């Protein structure tokens, strides 16, 4: 259920579901955090609704600045059909950010959200002050067009073992990885009421089409990006292979790279405390 904009909540678990009209439809979002400061906008992964943002990361960022978490078109409580290209997602998110009245933002994109963040940086550079790219890679990056081929067998494995697919997709199979997966999935269930709508299979598949197209796309000229960028990932990402993060940091003129040990695609969730500290230091610098 979407509610009108009210006062800013301080915790993710209590932040109401809000709606904003932009680009011909209504987009779902949540807003929380400090009343002043450069707003941080969060863009999430393939198949993710608002309830897939890590509460510890959101609350950590929101302690000192306003935070906006957005649903893509056709995902969760947002209207319309999920776009088939990253380009369309980026245009949607730009329209939402402008409809929210945000003139300059810090942008945090995880996985698919990192693809969208890169495209926004290139489309409207004056909108973004700083960016964080986590568990992601550039257009045409190594193995990105095979995200589906890598993921489907592990999704089936999760169904057969009665586990959440993120157990296998986001975390390593080591003891550390399994503990981190259990803790992360428990955090995602902390919000008991007013949860977002589940993602539909149609939206899930349409987003995968966009991811595959991004993986086959001609590389973009990231050398024109002048904003400071923090690139973060686990050192054993099997979904968007870790070398993509290394390559991103090398191609971006003002980038810093952090890789987390014994961590996969969800490295920022496994090391959420360290990531929040790093992100805040980066944004405040």
From TrEMBL:
<dbReference type="GO" id="GO:0016787">
    <property type="term" value="F:hydrolase activity"/>
</dbReference>
<protein>
    <submittedName>
        <fullName>Alpha/beta hydrolase</fullName>
    </submittedName>
</protein>
<keyword id="KW-0614">Plasmid</keyword>
<keyword id="KW-0378">Hydrolase</keyword>
<dbReference type="InterPro" id="IPR000073">
    <property type="entry name" value="AB_hydrolase_1"/>
</dbReference>
<dbReference type="InterPro" id="IPR050471">
    <property type="entry name" value="AB_hydrolase"/>
</dbReference>
<feature type="domain" description="AB hydrolase-1">
    <location>
        <begin position="39"/>
        <end position="269"/>
    </location>
</feature>
<dbReference type="InterPro" id="IPR029058">
    <property type="entry name" value="AB_hydrolase_fold"/>
</dbReference>
<dbReference type="Pfam" id="PF00561">
    <property type="entry name" value="Abhydrolase_1"/>
</dbReference>
């Amino acid at each position: 259920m979407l509610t009108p904009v009210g006062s800013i909540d301080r915790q993710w678990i209590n932040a109401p579901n809000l709606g904003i009209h932009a680009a011909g439809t209504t987009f779902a979002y949540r807003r929380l955090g400090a009343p002043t400061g450069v707003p941080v906008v969060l863009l999430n992964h393939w198949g993710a609704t608002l309830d897939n943002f890590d509460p510890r990361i959101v609350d950590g960022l929101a302690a000192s600045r306003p935070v906006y978490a957005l649903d893509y078109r056709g995902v969760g409580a947002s209207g319309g059909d999920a776009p088939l290209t990253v380009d369309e997602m980026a245009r949607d998110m730009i329209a939402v950010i402008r409809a929210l009245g945000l003139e300059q933002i810090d942008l945090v994109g995880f996985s698919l959200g990192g693809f969208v963040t890169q495209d926004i940086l290139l489309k409207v550079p004056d909108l973004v002050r700083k960016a964080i790219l986590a568990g992601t890679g550039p257009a045409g990056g190594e193995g990105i067009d095979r995200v589906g081929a890598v993921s489907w067998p592990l999704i089936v494995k999760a169904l057969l073992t009665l586990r959440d697919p993120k157990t296998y997709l986001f975390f390593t199979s080591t003891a550390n990885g399994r503990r981190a997966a259990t803790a992360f999935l428990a955090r995602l269930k902390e919000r008991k009421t007013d949860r977002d709508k589940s993602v539909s299979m149609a939206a899930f598949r349409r987003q995968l089409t966009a991811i595959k197209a991004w993986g086959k796309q001609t590389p973009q000229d990231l050398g024109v990006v002048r904003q400071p960028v923090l690139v973060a990932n686990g050192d054993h990402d099997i979904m968007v292979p870790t070398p993509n993060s290394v390559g991103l940091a090398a191609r971006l003129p003002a980038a810093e790279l952090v890789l987390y040990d014994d961590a996969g695609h969800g490295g920022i969730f496994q090391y959420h405390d360290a990531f929040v500290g790093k992100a805040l230091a980066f944004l405040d610098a």
